[in-house]
Each structure stands twice: as C-alpha cells, then as structure tokens.
Amino acid sequence: MTTSGSTGETMARAAERLRSAGMRVTVPRMAVLMAVSDSEGHLDADSLRGLAQRITGRLSLQATYNVLRALTDAGLVRTTQIAGHPARYETERHDNHHHFVCRACGSIRDVECAVGAAPCMEPRLPADYDTQEAAVTFWGLCPGCRAAAPLPGLSPQHEHLRRHGSMPGSSR
Amino acid sequence: MTTSGSTGETMARAAERLRSAGMRVTVPRMAVLMAVSDSEGHLDADSLRGLAQRITGRLSLQATYNVLRALTDAGLVRTTQIAGHPARYETERHDNHHHFVCRACGSIRDVECAVGAAPCMEPRLPADYDTQEAAVTFWGLCPGCRAAAPLPGLSPQHEHLRRHGSMPGSSR
DNA sequence: CCACAGACTTGACCGATTCAAGAAAATGCG
DNA sequence: CGCATTTTCTTGAATCGGTCAAGTCTGTGG
C-alpha cells in the first residue's frame, strides 16, 4: 500500500510535506519523497529513481538529482556520502545518527549516537574553530559477512571492495 | 634540502622504508613517498604528483595513483576520503586521528582522538557486528573563514562549497 | 484561464579514478 | 656483469557519479 499500488494516502502526505516545506508540489517530487520514505534508507540516486518510476512512470536521472537536492535543502531528506560509494539518501530525522558500513558487502546500517545527541562532538581544537557537526562512520563486517569470512576480519569479497575504494584502512 | 635540491638523505631513507616494507625501490615511489612525508599531509594525488615531479622530472598521474595505492597497501601511507573532495594522502602514523574540514575553504586539519585511542568506537550495535574502525569527520569553519563570515556559520564561499558536495548538512 | 517562475527532459560535459596494452626498469641468478 | 623474469611506468581510452545548459512543460497566483 505504500510501495507501488494505490499510493493515494502516501501521495497526499507527501504533497503535504512538500507544501509545508514551501516547495512546489510535483509528481516527481512526491514520487521521490515517497521512495525515500518507503525504503529503509541508504539508497542511491539511481535506485531511488527506479522506485520513483514505479509511481511516475518516467523520471530522468537528472530530475532525480534535482529533486534530491531540493529535498535535502528543504530539510526533508538527509544526504550521506561514504567513501567509495555513491551518495545515499534517507529521511531526515534530525537525530544525527551515524553509520556502520560493511567492508565486505557494502551494506549500511544506522547507528544511534552512543551518548546524547552528539558524541565525539568535542574535538581537541583551538577555541576559534567553529565545529558545527561530527560525522562518524564505523567500518567493519556485518554479521552475515563475518560468518562467511574465512579469517575473522578478512572476507573473500574484501579485496574486491577495497579496490572500489572503501576507505579507510585497506588492511591487506 | 628535503624538497627539491640535493635530496640524497631523504631519498636514501625513502628507499629504506620501501625496502623494509618489502616493496621494489623505484624513483617514482621514492619521490611520492618523499612528497607525502614532506607535505603537511592532506594533499590529493595530483598535488603530490606535482611535488614528486620536482624530483623525478616526469611522472604520470596514473603512476602516482599506482604508487599511492601500493604505499597505502603497504601501510606507509594513509588514505582519507572526504565527501566532495578528492582523496587525500598522509603519512601513516597509526594513531587513527580524525579530521576537521572547513566548509568554507575546504581546508583540513588533523584532530587527535579526544579519548584514548578510539573515541566513538563503541557503537550501539548487536554483538555480532565486527567493528574494526571508526572514522570521524568534523565539519565547521576554520578560524580564518569564521572571521571572514558575515553571519556566524554562513560564509560567502559556503554556497560555492556546498554545490561541490561537501557533506553533510548543506544548511542553506 | 493566462502568464511566468520554477521544474522536467535531453544531451553534452567534467573531475576523479581505473582499465588495458605496451615499453622500461628492478631484482634474481648464473 | 648481463640476461631473463616480473613488476612498474607511460599513454590513452573508458567508467562512474554527478553537474551544466538549453529548451519544453507545468504549478500556482492573479
């Protein structure tokens, strides 16, 4: 009901969200916003385009990028860039959570802040630095890949991933 | 003495470092290794190529990338990728320090771990996740840009930078 | 229902990085 | 020392994620 079929309900809600963010309401925007909301997050522009097309029928990749930027600027969507991966988009929840990235399969998982609203937000820096935000990325192996790994910490797909630039620490 | 002229001393040391890392000793490798060591770090491949060329005279960009990867794999160089910036390279010091990135000018500054060797290294994750590393990036304004900013937190160059993809938080 | 700003489509373009093929150079060995 | 083997470097093309630009289409306000 929320994915492809009668999306009436969600359409209306998406329209409302756009409107109250002061944005024009268009089919592509509703579709992308719904795609981001429906997905578990962490999808890239092209995947979201695919989902959105199930609603709009046709949607250019460029439009997808435009919409995603507009939604990000409006504070409805959060953009996350992870080294070696295309940008991912998720619903902005204003909780400044972080991400765990599996070095083997590339999957991403949300990680809540360990302490309060901003862990690690106290860098050892001179007072005249204006620190606005801290982004934390955890690297490791997800349960599935960990089980499949011959040696703990070194999976078969690891080498492949490394070559795709998953920073940091290539550890070969 | 360490930059362009008689680089004998450093050349020899670079050769030694390569050798003890089990790598073949070549002029391009020594040159790039010296370039990384001499710089304050945080230079991208093309800049390092420029520095290295002052020693080798000629060095392809492709070779620079090859060398940097080899050095990274060998644990002599640390690669850092920051959203919206090309990859930066610095001498591997095995201290897992983090980075502060200025949203206005894009400059990068090292930040020591606030607590022990691995702050934020305790993600709220199920026990079957194998967390190997935590990368923390602080975003904000460096002293210079902060002073130049008309409104605190929003510099004149900010918009420009945002459009170049400096994640996270576009805050327009 | 019209006009106009803002949004979509298409297609060229770009920066960072990698792939591929051949030439050059480094180490091992006789 | 001189060659063979293997790795590395050079050159040039290609890929990938993403942006720019020009023209057409469509919300929205009047």
From TrEMBL, chains A, B:
Q: What is this protein called?
A: Fur family transcriptional regulator
**Record keyword Transcription regulation present:** yes
Query: Which Gene3D superfamilies has this protein been placed in?
Result: 3.30.1490.190, Winged helix-like DNA-binding domain superfamily/Winged helix DNA-binding domain
Please name the source species: Streptomyces edwardsiae
Q: Which CDD domains does UniProt cross-reference here?
A: Fur_like
Q: Where in the cell is it found?
A: Cytoplasm
Q: Fetch the PANTHER family from UniProt.
A: TRANSCRIPTIONAL REGULATOR FURA, ZINC UPTAKE REGULATION PROTEIN
Provide the residue span(s) of the region labelled Disordered. Answer: 153-172
Entry's family note: Belongs to the Fur family.
One Pfam family matching this protein: FUR
Alphabetical UniProt keywords: Cytoplasm, DNA-binding, Iron, Metal-binding, Repressor, Transcription, Transcription regulation, Zinc
Q: Which SUPFAM superfamilies match?
A: Winged helix' DNA-binding domain
